[in-house]
Specification:
It comes from Halanaerobium saccharolyticum. This protein is α/β, with parallel strands linked by helices and about 250 residues long. The protein contains eight helices and seven strands.
Length: about 250
């Protein structure tokens, strides 16, 4: 089990303030494996801080930062280093979604989603990877992809485009950083019961159609992502590079 031990490691996890979100569970999971956490979100992080520190005994630094603003990216890295003195893991989980028919979808909504989900994910990864290289750290980068990294979806053109691109940029970073001992991979969550998927679950017809295609027969829960995140953050994945790992209840196989 030492392969999965994250003691002495520091993980930045973006988008982790909501108890109903994937980032909250991933931050908890990495802390359960022994990592100290620098959690990033626009909103208050006191709930996740309390949960991590009381349940795991690990440290949690809350960094309030809007990932729509590029100026905040350096702030995230600087705050993590000031608190812990090192960074070992970056989890790019933060993301936003806008819903509208494609014939009516606004340029403003397109730009907002692409800025958070792709542009600033790229820049934060680039900055963190430079830190890894300069300090000879065999770092781990984990991006949050999606089932819409594979499919087109409906009413979410910018989200779909961004998540296809997240899969692509994961592979692109891998091709240049694997030789430096830096692992860049992604998790592609299936249909998980989060705030983002609430409109789908509330639509009886869509909900039934989705459940009928999931071999596991249920919506995923946030805790279902913990194992994959710990694996990709740990020594167990040292020869895993450029992979998109579906955690989808079998959706892609159906």
């Amino acid at each position: 089990m030492d392969l999965f031990n994250l003691e002495g490691k520091v993980a930045i996890v973006t988008g982790c303030s909501s108890k109903k979100g994937i980032g909250y569970a991933v931050a908890e999971g990495l802390a359960e494996a022994g990592a100290d956490i620098a959690g990033v979100a626009r909103s208050d992080l006191s709930e996740i801080k309390k949960a991590v520190e009381s349940k795991t005994g690990q440290k949690f630094l809350g960094i309030q930062a809007d990932l729509m603003e590029e100026k905040n990216l350096d702030k995230i890295i600087e705050a993590a280093l000031a608190e812990y003195g090192r960074i070992d893991i970056l989890v790019n989980n933060a993301g936003i979604i806008r819903r509208d028919p494609i014939l009516e979808f606004s340029a403003a909504d397109w730009d907002a989603v692409m800025t958070v989900n792709l542009r600033n994910l790229f820049l934060l990864t680039q900055k963190t990877a430079n830190y890894f290289v300069e300090n000879e750290i065999k770092g781990k980068v984990i991006n949050t992809a999606s089932m819409l990294s594979y499919q087109g979806g409906k009413f979410v053109p910018s989200y779909t485009a961004s998540k296809h691109a997240v899969a692509g940029i994961t592979k692109s970073f891998c091709n240049e950083l694997a030789a430096k001992g830096i692992n860049v991979n992604a998790i592609a969550p299936g249909y998980i019961a989060t705030n983002n998927t609430a409109p789908l679950r509330e639509d009886e017809e869509r909900n039934a159609g989705i459940l009928s295609r999931i071999p596991a027969g249920r919506w995923g829960q946030n805790d279902d992502l913990k194992g994959a995140a710990i694996f990709l953050a740990s020594k167990a994945s040292d020869y895993v590079h450029g992979s998109i790992v579906p955690v989808d209840g079998g959706w892609l196989s159906s």
